[in-house]
Structure formats: C-alpha cells, structure tokens
Specification:
This protein is mainly β. It has helices at residues 2-11, 33-39, 113-119, 125-133; strands at residues 23-24, 27-28, 46-56, 61-71, 75-82, 85-93, 96-101, 106-111, 145-148, 153-160, 163-170, 175-183, 188-199, 205-216, 220-233. It has four helices and 15 strands.
Length: 251
C-alpha cells in the first residue's frame, strides 16, 4: 500500500468548429505545429484542482480523492485522501521532491531526478507542470511534422534521441488530445489521453479527464485515470508542507 500511495502522487505528478486557417506572412498558422502549439500553451499563475483518482498496477489497485495545487514555475502540491482522511502529501519543487506518508508516519526527500528515474515520467518539474496543465511536456516545440490530418484530430510527430514523440491535436478545442512517447530501445512506453474539455473564463479549454498508461521495467504496466470535478485558476492557495516531529526519515 505504501508504494502504491507514493506512486499515485508521482502519477498525478507525474497530468468549436472546423479548423480556421489564419495566414501569418508566408506561414499558415494551422499548418505549422510550432505556431499552434505555442498559441495553445495554458499558463495560469495558480491552479487548484480537486479530482478522483483510480490506479491499477500488476499487483494492486488504488482509488481515492486528490487535491492538486500549482504555483507556476515554483511548486506542485498534492494531497491524497481515502474515506475523507489524508493518507499522504507531496511537494514537488524545481530541484526536490518531498513526500509525507500519513499511514506509516514517514517522510522522504529526494532530488527531482528521482521521479523520472523511478517512475519513468517525462523530464523535470516543468515537464510535470506542463502535463498537469494540459501542455506538451517539451522545452522545444519545433520540428514537429503533421503525419495525419483526418477529421478534427491531427497527428503530430517528432523524432527524439530516445524514441518518437507523437501528439494528437484536437482542432475543436485547440488543445492536445493525446501524448504518445515510444522508446523501443529501452522498452518503455508512455501514453496520456486528454478529454472532457470545458471552456474557462479566459476562453481557453481545460481537460477535466486524463487517462495515463506507462509500461517499463521499473513500473511494469501501470494505468491511471484522473478526473477533475472542480478547478480554479489564478487564486493564491496554501502550499503548506510541515513535517511532524514524530515522523521518521531524513533529508
């Protein structure tokens, strides 16, 4: 149970109509992935989301309620609850990861690289933040090619040193609909689907539903479903993270 509760934090934490063509000089915006991916970036200063979580691995299952809070480019705070009681809390910073296990009175502290190495989630703090906000988890959004323009969902693809990254692009919502990262040389696979888009006051769309599949030697087969039922943006929230004296662990 301890490992599953910890894993669930990292897997939080590591997540209109027909296309309109707009000409910009010699470029057509909706034919240029770099332009429309950049335009779609969602970057509120603050976020708080309440959600339902379901997670299934090869040896166990977990479900519960979660609260995710983000201060842009600074911190990701997560609380996991079961039957109304908090069973764990996590704080992710740009260089560190902290975790409180309420069931066993234990705390952990790790460098941010721990998340990528142990749980095969993409990249670093900024990549995790991008997944939770529904953005592409990339430092460089150039060099994508459009490989499929069927219906209202295009397929974008980019070759990377460790495999191929594919994005689904939903023209109805002007947002990413799927992320597919295949690394055949290391037998790793990461796929996240986005759904249940709802319009915000800013007229942007936010995905209330996430479906994540990870396959690797480290995680086995892992399936996570995250459903937000309430979100708010740009209102400051508490990121309090106190370590009780009775808890065992070390920095």
């Amino acid at each position: 149970m301890y490992k599953i509760v910890l894993s669930s934090f990292l897997l939080f934490a590591i997540l209109s109509c027909s296309p309109k063509i707009i000409e910009k000089g010699a470029l057509v915006e909706d034919d240029n992935p770099s332009l429309f991916l950049k335009k779609a970036i969602f970057a509120p200063e603050w976020m708080e989301g309440k959600c339902q979580l379901q997670m299934a691995s090869e040896d166990s299952n977990l479900s519960g309620q979660g609260i995710i809070r983000i201060r842009r480019d600074s911190a990701i705070w997560v609380s996991l609850r079961k039957l109304g009681f908090e069973v764990g809390r996590a704080l992710i910073l740009k260089d560190s990861f902290f975790y409180l296990n309420r069931l066993n009175n234990v705390f952990e502290a790790h460098p941010i690289s721990f998340i990528k190495e142990k749980y095969q989630l993409p990249g670093d703090f900024l990549h995790l933040q991008a997944l939770l906000l529904g953005n592409a988890p990339l430092d460089d959004i150039s060099d994508f090619t459009v490989t499929n323009k069927e219906s209202f969902e295009w397929q974008l693809q980019k070759s990377m040193d460790n495999g191929t990254l594919s994005l689904g692009w939903d023209f109805n919502n002007k947002r990413i609909s799927a992320i597919d990262w295949n690394q055949p040389s290391s037998n790793k696979y990461f796929k996240m689907k986005f759904g249940d888009y709802k319009a915000l006051e800013s007229k942007q769309q936010f995905s209330y539903f996430r479906d994540l599949n990870i396959q690797s030697a480290e995680t086995g087969n892992l399936h996570v479903v995250l459903s937000f039922n309430q979100v708010q943006f740009n209102l400051p929230v508490s990121l309090r993270f106190d370590i009780p004296q009775r808890y065992s662990g070390s920095y």
